[in-house]
# Entry
Amino acid sequence: MSSPWLFAVQTVKALLRQLLDEDVLMAIGRKCGWDMLLKADSHHYAVGLLARELCRVSRSFCRSIAVSLLPRLSRGEPLWELPALAFLVEVLHCLNPRQCGPSVLQIISRHLRSQCPERRRLALRGLVVLSRDPAMAKSMRSLSESLLELLQDADTDAVEMTLTVFINVLGLKIIKISSPIALKLLEVLRPLFDNETLGPVSFQACAPVGLEKPVLRSFPLPLHQEHSQLQQLSMLLFRELMEATERSKSLKPHVYLSLVPFYFNWHDKNQRVAEASRRALFGAARFLKWRDLEHLVTMEQPWRFPECLLEKDRSRVGQYVRQALPFLESPEEPLRKLAIKFLGIAARSMKQEQPELQLISLQDMTDDSPAISNLAQETLHIIRAVRRTSFFSFW
# Structure
């Protein structure tokens, strides 16, 4: 690295020593802040780290710096735009959103469409902060299409922050979502319940603004933890969406398709995912005006769900069965048991259908654990009995 860069970093340290305690400067060093300032690919992370430390000492000082950055960020000066954006995002909570909000929102909306993942991620972190303010939430309607696109991004952190922005905005209960936007949201959300569409977990992602102790994530979270967070957020957003949307016939097919995944996720070993599933299932039942199913969820009686659902909606039994089949291969034994029981109950409702797919799937499970194997054998017996009864009834 050339000496001018090193000289600049040493100058910054000398200036900050006049503002900050030596312990703070040492903490920045332990987090590799000074080293990151010397590297082009990590420079903006270091600027964000410095901004956080400055905010602890003088919010007014950070506010004045941020206000002076706004005109330059609006013009878009490529050489230092990324570190300036990193600084702005870290000190957004120091600004008055009613005064600076429109300018900040304009800057952020431009970076949401950037081809640079870091710019998009920083823009989303800024939106997470702004979306908590009612006045700003109303102004964010214009970003709906851009945010919908980001829900399909391969960057897990970007998807999580986008979900959080939608949850914050809808949670304020001050706006209604139009049916076309709600329909697009439901189409994107349904695969997220089981994390079907996301690519690799991103590296070096900054933690969302607003945490008490912001940290740099220099390694990916365990994959199951990433899945759980996405499931939880996507289901929480579904519940908020059901409350903020006018009831429309065009939305009902997607709501029907969400019922079985919610039922199985209600039994997830992760309690946060299970609770988010229960709340989402309640929102779906209320949207469909199924009072008995709504009461079942309120009373927390999941064991009654399959019979209630399959009795109420016989026209979609085959569809619900196809949704339950993947859970036969779940690594969690309780979910495999649940899927077998679901298929056994469904077999009684499929009077005029030949559930060949169920037979094939359950026969593959007779070599599972003793508990699973016995349950699969019993359910196979039920399905074959239903087939014989249906055959003789037909003749």
In short: The CA atoms of residues 282 and 297 lie 6 Å apart. The mean pLDDT is 78.
